[in-house]
Amino acid sequence: MFLTISTTGTPERPATDLGYLLHKHPEAAQTFSTSYGTAHVLYPEADDLRCTVALLLEVDPVALVRRGKGKGRGGAPDAALAQYVNDRPYAASSLLAVALSNVFSSALRGVCRARPERAAEPLPLRVEIPALPARGGPALVRRLFEPLGWTVTADPVALDAQFPQWGDSRYVRLVLEGGTLTLAQALRQLYVLLPVLDDAKHYWVSSDEVDKLLRAGEGWLPEHPEQKLIVGRYLTRRWSLARQAMERLELVRLAETDDSEVEEIDNAVAAETEKEERPTPLAVHRREALLGALRRHGAARVLDLGCGEGQLVQTLLRDPAFTEIVGVDVSVRALTIASRRLKLNTMGERQAARVRLFQGSLTYTDKRLTGYDAAVLSEVIEHLDLPRLPALEYAVFGAARPRTVLVTTPNVEYNVRWESLPAGHARHGDHRFEWTREEFRAWAAPVAERHGYAVEFEAVGPEDPEVGAPTQMAVFTRLAATEGPADRNDRHDRNDRHDRNDRHDRNEKEEVKAA
């Protein structure tokens, strides 16, 4: 990933002043560590008449995947390969924009104590980026940069020079020249427009990105004819953030028109003194959905499979309708915490008779799990490797066979709405996968069919019109006409008891006759 910035000068006002503005000495090659690789700053040429600085960013694709956890949408081999084999090390993107802001942070702010007068005056600049992804082609590149005063050269890069019939790629070789810009203005424009042209970001876009956009867009974005497109793409089409940014940009434009400060215009509403109502945590929504489903299906004896620290078990204990509650987890530490949470050591005898905790693996059949009205797997399946799911499926649906099975799991499509979740990250470091709503249904429907269950799906939590709810729940109900191993065992036990009783009665009758 490569970018050069050149300027010209005179012996009186040497071009090497660029080194002062960038706070990087022209005679030194410097290296900087970034989150995803190494940035190198060097000067291919540096004299009074012409000076060029080069920023070379070596992206480590393995670090890029590892820092992103690489677990958001696991399962597909091609998706896994695409994490490592992509254009990120070679084409300018948000990675380069972030490197610009980190390496040239003072220049981006227009700060230069050694040459403050040079930082404030326009320079004859030339910017070249050999490979720039441009979703929209050269025409969009010109629409973005020409209104800012640049002379734009955007040459399409062929897919393969040896096969011109294949056409052009989505990359261009970009050269920006001319303009009456300070170095800080040029850097801020690049910082915003590189990810806009790529139409992607390597990190999660949160609410603080609005402030970054407005700071970098000061002086040019409020009047840009493509303002709406820039805002939408920069904020990765998070429309709530884009709307907030557009409203603030309109205030800036009105303030400039009225020759006043933004604060003077944005004073129609007094500051709120009341505290905003805090949203209900998703964990509460999830427990309420599970309780509602258990009550609707008349469950009295309930298994909490993968009970963790016992939050759901504690909630179930508060309702006397649940006469027997069993928490199962593979983690001894989690069971110990659950025991302390429930205060089993000091619990009354009647209450203690309703609850049990024991260690067990959900990927192995366990006779202790048979005969229950309902089983809950709340946020459990995503902690298993995908090849282990068939074992869990058989242990729960094939062997234990409760009348009702409730399965909740995150909806990965909703992850774009988590403002604190970096892009590409799963919600928990131990998640082996996270499914879309379609993927969850594609797993649940065959499971139900194989084991004689009907399945319905419910949304859990506030539902977004575009990406659905944050959590999805499958409600499996056993069909009356089906029989599994657990049912057969129960039937065999009943038959054995019946046979033993018959033999016992016959023996008693024979003894009476003999007497």
Write out key terms for the chains shown.
single chain, 515 residues, alpha/beta, seven-stranded antiparallel β-sheet, seven-stranded mixed β-sheet, 19 helices, 14 strands, 38% helix
Strand order of the largest sheet: 2-3-4-1-5-7-6
The span between the termini is 103 Å
Shape: elongated
Task: Bin the strand percentage.
Answer: 15-25%
User: Helicity range of the residues?
Assistant: 25-40%
Q: What count of helical segments does DSSP give?
A: 19
- As residue ranges, the low-confidence spans are 69-79, 268-274
Largest sheet: 7 strands, antiparallel
Q: Find the count of extended strands (DSSP E, 2+ residues).
A: 14
What is the average of the pLDDT values?
A: 84
What Rg, in angstroms, do the CA atoms define?
A: 32 Å
Helix/strand/pairing class, anyone? alpha/beta
Tell me about this structure.
By secondary structure, the protein is α/β, with parallel strands linked by helices. The protein has 19 helices and 14 strands. It has helices spanning 17-22, 61-67, 77-82, 94-103, 105-109, 116-119, 137-145, 183-198, 208-216, 227-234, 239-258, 262-265, 282-296, 311-317, 332-342, 349-352, 389-400, 437-451, 485-514; strands spanning 2-8, 30-34, 37-46, 50-59, 123-133, 151-158, 168-181, 301-305, 324-329, 355-359, 374-378, 404-410, 453-460, 471-478. The protein has a seven-stranded antiparallel beta sheet with strand order 2-3-4-1-5-7-6. A hairpin with a 3-residue loop joins β3 and β4. The chain is elongated, with a radius of gyration of 32 Å. 33% of the residues are buried.
